[in-house]
């Protein structure tokens, strides 16, 4: 069968999606034999009727197999993690080299920021010379020699998803759990993973605000990845406050380096949780993770990865030399009180307004700008303890950001943070 219309009709009528039907749709998306109208009709049918667990697995596999799938021959297991996005989420820059110190390989295919959430590649490109666009030969060589590499996706990986992703935006079908699941996993599983850990955010700065919505997505992702042959677990984590103290690009790289050199805080805590789960999936002990941060071993691996991808050889030793500061740095002051609430999405929009993110794909960003010293829930603020420091290109941008940050914070006489990890959905 080469006509996609019977497959679309089957999904529309609630009869589900089988392997051959999913393969026909995915291949047609990749080679253009499925028209935009048919792709939009398929996406709408999936949104309104769903395809169930078996259909999600079939669609994920078919979209993965619509392009190149990596196969590795390495001395240790190949793992990765995926986050649904948030503010101050610099986990990947720490997690990948940390896992590499444990004999685990992390070939991380990552993305750029869009909207209020930051992108891993944008952060790394704040490092002078860092080249995210590695060809497959270089990607394999760096992963083998260093233990990790963080690169952009090539057009060879999951081309069906790239086309369907754009059509979902145009057809109003972005919210489909089935399509979100297949989109995330088809790209990740094309990297040839033996284990995948998902960090699904819930809270005011997350795409999914409620824990219930995050749980629905996490369970769909875990069961689908496992069904597609990749052991997978998920942690539902807090995004009712920024994960790190910084939000931006160069400022987040600087904070990641401090954590790689042993700095304590929520960012380190979550990295250790996710790294331990990655190791559990592949049957490795996790008792040496903290020591690898405290000793500088993980920082050394990160430095080698940066150098292998075109960056400076001494970034770890001289981060201030390479991570250029913004021209204007001003405090965000407030009346005395205790932080009782944070609109984290508003903080992300403040970084966007400074020029540190993009609303549309392809827009240029300023790596220097952002926020540092972000106050957390339950902390006292006032004239002697700013809500944050605004890093801006000029005074006008700084004042706009200051007003936005002040509006994002609520203060009172008391406040407290919830648990960093809200729920665990673990592979058996």
Question: Main traits of this protein?
Answer:
428 residues; alpha/beta; 4-stranded mixed β-sheet; 4-stranded antiparallel β-sheet; 17 helices; 14% strand
Sequence stretches where pLDDT stays below 50 over 5 or more residues: none
Mean pLDDT: 94
Q: How much of the polypeptide forms β-strand, as a percent range?
A: 5-15%
Distance between the termini: 38 Å
Strand-pairing-aware structural class: alpha/beta
Number of extended strands: 13
Strand/helix succession: HHHHEHEHHEHHEHEEHHHHHEEHEEEHEE
Count, helices: 17
Biggest sheet strand line-up: 1-4-5-13
Overall 3D shape: globular
Rg from alpha-carbon coordinates: 22 Å
Summarize the structure in words.
There is one protein chain. The model has no long low-confidence stretch (mean pLDDT 94). It is built from 17 helices and 13 strands. It has helices at residues 5-12, 19-31, 36-49, 52-64, 91-100, 120-124, 136-146, 159-171, 177-189, 211-227, 250-260, 266-281, 289-294, 297-308, 319-322, 344-354, 395-408, and strands at 79-83, 106-110, 148-152, 195-202, 232-238, 247-248, 328-332, 337-342, 370-372, 380-381, 388-392, 409-412, 421-425. Helix 5 (91-100) crosses helix 12 (266-281). It is of the alpha/beta class and 428 residues long. Helices cover 45% and strands 14% of the residues. The protein is globular.
